[in-house]
Amino acid sequence: MKDLAERAVNGDDRAVARLITHAENCHPDLYEAMRIIHRHGGRAQVIGITGVMGAGKSTLIAEIALEYRKRGKTVGIIAIDPTSPFTGGALLGDRIRMSRLTMDPGIFIRSMGTRGMLGGLTGAVYDVMEIMDASGKDVIIVETVGVGQAEVDIIKIADTTLVVLVPGLGDSIQTIKAGLMEIADIFVVNKADVPGIERTMAEIESMIDLGHRPGVRKTPVLATAAKECKGITELVDAIEEHREFIVGSGSLPDRRRKRYEAELVEIIRKRLMTMIFDEKVFREKVESLIGRIEGKETDPYSAAEEILDGLLK
Amino acid sequence: MKDLAERAVNGDDRAVARLITHAENCHPDLYEAMRIIHRHGGRAQVIGITGVMGAGKSTLIAEIALEYRKRGKTVGIIAIDPTSPFTGGALLGDRIRMSRLTMDPGIFIRSMGTRGMLGGLTGAVYDVMEIMDASGKDVIIVETVGVGQAEVDIIKIADTTLVVLVPGLGDSIQTIKAGLMEIADIFVVNKADVPGIERTMAEIESMIDLGHRPGVRKTPVLATAAKECKGITELVDAIEEHREFIVGSGSLPDRRRKRYEAELVEIIRKRLMTMIFDEKVFREKVESLIGRIEGKETDPYSAAEEILDGLLK
After folding, report:
1. Does ipTM top 0.85?
2. pLDDT by residue (tens digit) across B40-70?
3. Residue A210 near chain B (CB below 8 Å)
4. Superfamily of domain covering B43-250
5. Which residues of A touch B171 (CB under 8 A)?
6. Which among A145, A179, A268 has CB closest to B147?
7. Distance from CA of residue B24 to its chain's centroid?
8. Where do the structural domains in chain B lie, given as residue ranges?
9. Beta-carbon contacts below 8 Å between A and B
10. Does the reported pTM lie above 0.90?
11. B145 touches chain A (CB under 8 A)
């Protein structure tokens, strides 16, 4: 495991891929690798991209990645959107587009499937981020669907978060109201060739104006047509500008601290849940308690108490 | 707290509402109420409804609720979709439609906002379900957006899960591929008045045929036009049929057991996280460790180990 980590930090992408698989499978020796990985990380720029299904996020990510490549940067892509073409949900047209990325050794793509209740999808994301970071990727792009709580949590800890909307989708405005407003560092209205773009942009801008306080950075709204590769340079410029803004305003360390806190929470959660549900002695206890809950001899709260009593100091 | 529980199990909806608020806020004495609640629950039929944004889920839920009322049943609705009209994301037209529900004392609606990382949105859902169940609601409808892991977990434990799609949405098929296929007990193609309905239904049916094994129940596909109240009777008939099927095949207890297990996991998770992040002694430890992680004096895995060493037997 240590050997894999050493190879990963030296930029060996096959070692990176294997380590990521170990992270996804919660390999018991993973921590040995992550100790080494952590020492070499902390340099990558993390971009979170979220938005409704059908907004063209994956195509947009492909174009952003290619633009960063033009600027001489290496890119890691993490797709945790189950409907993403990166995750295998792709139609043929998307797959062909994606192959432009997969041929480039400067781009590393990893899609993460959904897992069971204890499997720790979100947990592994932090590990994957750290591994890509330590392996020398300059930019890491994380793609999620911006509606689940877990996804919102992840996106919150990016250096820069893009919220992608499309014109004419009545839900766009609802989505913004529903909490994406506060996590967006940049709004992107993709599919700028679709009718209704002006109205959608005006709606978003007036909503931003409503919530705007003087002296605070105003969230920019950009139009792109990712399929036609329009507006991408401007978007990447805006990402870079935001990055300079958070570095200049001193809020980058805050964002980093939040990320480490979230990672710590997740590791602890995973360790405890693995202990309770995988170790035979606890597993048997849990099963007998569930039987008693069903039979109304006990209730879930008292059962939880009983398990914790056997566990905690 | 015990008094509130006693009143809730006697069908006092104001007590129900107050208990739910305590559950959402993780009130430290909640367990006292939940012990009583649990003894009175386990009778309600739980229907999960998931699907993409803009599929008209909320209107569909409203119509299903009204149909169950016609059949003499009381209904509880839990909306954990942040973009749902139930959750306040509603446009005016939706609000008017929803008011038909809120006037009926036989329908109890609760929308749940998203919470912070430790706040336990999903956790409270189990409590809310148990509270509504114990208070005598015959049918409980849970609405989620079917893309986040947490949402999928919740929907998995319903007695009957509806996956709602709309015609013409290219994403529909991707959505099915992306894992909703296995959780759907019934597919609903809503907005049946929109062009493309036949094609969408044919696509879904052929996909079901592909994965169909002889001797296994075949997932039905129904068309509805919720706004025009079309297809609702047939849909509720199909839900009842599915309910009879799981009762007859003996799989209802399995679904219930899964629900209790998920609830137990969530209570334990919440308790441990509250302990680690709210109790002063741990909170200080966590903050100092995050500083050391940032400074690369330690790494998240070693830090987690240190916290657990202070916690576990």
Report:
1. no
2. 988 999 999 887 666 788 889 999 999 999 9
3. no
4. P-loop containing nucleotide triphosphate hydrolases (3.40.50.300)
5. 53-54, 83
6. A145
7. 14
8. 43-250
9. 213
10. no
11. yes
